Amino acid sequence: MCNLYLVDDDQAVLDSLTWMLKGLGFQPLGFLSADSFLSQVDIQSEAIAILDVQMPGMDGSALLAHLTKAQSPIAVIMLSGHGNIAMAVQAIQKGALDFLEKPVDGDKLVVLLEQAKIQTQLNLRRKQAREELSCKLEALTPREYEVMEKVLEGKLNKVIAAELNIAQRTLELHRQKVMQKMQVSNVAELAYLMGKSTD
After folding, report:
1. Average pLDDT over residues 20-48
2. Calpha distance 111→134 (Å, rounded)
């Protein structure tokens, strides 16, 4: 079960949400501000966060933007006492899973939490894949990177060799190195790996 966090500056809302969620079988952790949440939570681990939009200091939208910028895998559900459509659309564009109005509908929340659980696992897997790819790319020399780009453009070895002004045998060695370092056995796998990173 992944962690579930509640961030709302209203203690009464935190208490009622905590009570509701515990009744649904969850063990949420509540925070009265974005700052206390950020100082106590590892935002790079799998979790779900329900954030109040309007809070003093850093509000829910700013916290959501912070999590997105930090590439946090946390799945976010926004909450507001006086939401409007524009606010909801904005939250979802910024990466929130959904937008709920207070008082929260328990049935709707349960469905959302199930979606959020899948979302955070997916986010974490994507993040790990991006980091692995980044490490592989860092292992390439500038020349190998150049060769890889031209291979991905679908160019033939002799064309690439001519463009880079190197012998075809040298090019083949570079190409071999690229495949080894990227841990793929053919160009199709390489293209898939590079394409997946932009998902």
Report:
1. 93
2. 35
